[in-house]
Design brief:
The complex is a heterodimer. By secondary structure, chain A is mostly beta strands. Chain A contains no helices and 9 strands. Helix content of chain A is about 0%, strand content about 45%. The mean pLDDT of chain B is about 95. Classes of the chains: A mainly beta, B mainly beta. Chains A and B meet through strand 3, strand 7 and strand 8 of A and strand 5, strand 9 and strand 10 of B.
């Protein structure tokens, strides 16, 4: 079955830039999306169509795509950004939705 | 106001059946792709099933043949019928609207989830 690969954890100090990657063979064919999930809460969309930011999401969140890897970048990380982040896309056929394993962002 | 409210979770024995419900307000389920996503305790997100505007349905391999997604347009409600439940189906079950059709899109908004526990 198709998989999206994320690093299990990323740590940064406040004010620094955090980059979370997501790799998958079908990413050149389909958009990627990113979600933030804090403990005890439902996920929240932070990036759609690789690099678009929903209304209400701070400008420090951005997304990019290059080949089989997409990247979520959080510039000027704040303590409130500490959360789990998940990428999501589709399999090659565009039928099955797939999530990455998730990345725990720790703000030191 | 757009809102999704799940209900119907609970404790069920292995091999049993359960139906979870997602009551939607603010948009018609009939005109949207709708999905179920689950999250086992302490684990990541796992997509479970989608129902298209056309009524076509798709399932993750882990639930195919055991789970059935459906909707009631008159009640603006989404359902997930879960049969032959296994311990590994224990999870928080979220419903979500999928935007971006006809391509595989993004999930927004999400409900708050309903917890299903499969245990003897």
């Amino acid at each position: 079955s198709y998989e999206l690969t994320q690093p299990p954890s990323v740590s940064v100090s406040p004010g620094q830039t955090a980059r979370i990657t997501c790799s998958g063979d079908a990413l050149p064919k389909h958009y990627a999306y990113w979600y933030q999930q804090k403990p005890g809460q439902a996920p929240v969309l932070v990036i759609y169509k690789d690099s678009e930011r929903p209304s209400g999401i701070p400008e420090r969140f951005s997304g990019s795509s290059s080949g089989t890897t997409v990247t979520l970048t959080i510039s000027g990380v704040q303590a409130e950004d500490e959360a789990d982040y998940y990428c999501q896309s589709a399999d090659s056929a565009g039928t099955y939705r797939v999530f990455g394993g998730g990345t725990k962002l720790t703000v030191l | 106001e757009v809102q999704l409210v799940e209900s119907g979770g609970g404790l069920i024995q292995p091999g049993g059946s359960l139906r979870v419900t997602c009551a939607v307000s603010g948009f018609p389920v009939s005109n949207n792709y709708m999905s179920w996503v689950r999250q086992a305790p302490g684990k990541g997100l796992e997509w479970v099933s989608v129902i298209y505007i056309s009524g076509s349905t798709y399932y993750a391999d882990s639930v195919k043949g055991r789970f059935t997604i459906s909707r009631d347009n008159s009640k603006n409600t989404l359902y997930l019928q879960m049969d032959s439940l296994r311990v590994e189906d224990t999870a928080m079950y979220y419903c979500a609207r999928e935007s971006g059709a006809p391509f595989v899109g993004w999930f927004d908004p999400w409900g708050q989830g309903t917890l299903v526990t499969v245990s003897s």
